[in-house]
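Table S5 (text form). Sequence records supplied for joint modeling of the two-component complex.
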Amino acid sequence: MTSTEQKKRTKPVTPLVLTGIVSAALYVALLTNQDFLNNNFAKGGLYAFLPIITAFIFSYFHGTFTGHFWTMLGVEASKKKKEVK
Amino acid sequence: MHDVVAQVSNFIHLDVANITYLFLVGFVGGLVSGFIGSGGAFVLTPGMMSIGVPGLVAVASNMCHKFPKALVGSIKRAKYGQVDLKLGLALGISAEAGVLYGAHIQESIKKAFGDAGSNLYVSVAFVVILGVVGTFVLRDAWKTYKSGTSHEEEKVTKLARWVQSINIPGTMVYFKSIDAKVSILFTIPLGFATGMLAATIAVGGFIGVPAMIYVLGAPSLMASATELVIAFVMGLGGSFKYALHGMVDIRLAMIILGGSLFGIQLGAMGTTYVKPFMIKVVMGVIMVIVLFSRGLMVPVYLSQLGLISTLSEQTAKILKSTSFTIMISALALGAFIVLRAMWVGRRAEQRELQGAVAHSKA
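The corresponding structure-token record, covering 447 residues in total, follows.
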């Protein structure tokens, strides 16, 4: 096995832990500040940007975390090169 | 609209049971969306309403979880070379117009005929569109399976060949998924119809994906992946529109997103293990089952409008709960087919690899 192949097979422990911590922190913040969110994120007008920006932030950190999560469990895409057509 | 805001500004209290329920439904919805490009929303919106979320907040919050989910899913599937970004954006922009027009029609019907009229319109749209398109998709998948050609390259339909042969100067655009130039005068109405359906039944992909496959000639895998781009564009615009009126409950949206991002990663990976016709199988099965679910509700709304004799409260209750159960089982069955196909594909690949290693050792 070449070093490149070995590198590819390395489990993404550090990114998983880092994104996991950020993702968990985001959800803790979401659930512990429900009154604040209900009062400020639903005001309409320019406040409309708040839920949109929040959704992007969650999707980045939690999306990266869930990707690494499945990789850690050994669930990955097929290694065969797939012809789409 | 501000009256509506005042009515819905009290978002529901969330307990552990509600959070777990939303997370799990989000996961299953995400799994199916990652695979066929859409789905899940038709269960999520009534699912939220069943725990006391007002209708408009449920629609808005669903939309706000949809666009980040579609973003993550489309990036994942783009890595597998399945996304046609240009086609997705072209259809997505016209779909946005369709969403606005569809929402306008909904509002007009609601004003003229009330909630029952609006619900009847949605149910009839479900039954007619899913009946026609769903049956067609499922029949096509069945024919492919029976003919034993499921492993071969997908054939472009006659209609798609005709669409690709039409040359309207100044409107032709090359799309990599189709590997041909197509006039945007064809993509605009298809995107518009996708958006209108999304505004009506929350799942535009039931028109978008079959349209890309059968009308434009895109392969199933690329069509379902490109649908995620359309969902992102539509979802982002729709969420912003609802957020302007303060109707998005960010807590609901993010909890559903929490589950659906686990699901969408899995569903997207699933597409690399299956034969393309499986996209049609999952989509067709879900469409046909959901059709029955909504069909059951038609008598309830007809009775509310006084168009047929009034149903007893008990009968209406039974019809409603049966309809909701069938709808959930449609999504669960779709998820089961995806997971099973992925499992079978992975095992076959592992066996092949082991065989290759044994052969090289020998």
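Note: The CA atoms of residues 114 and 305 of chain B lie 9 Å apart.
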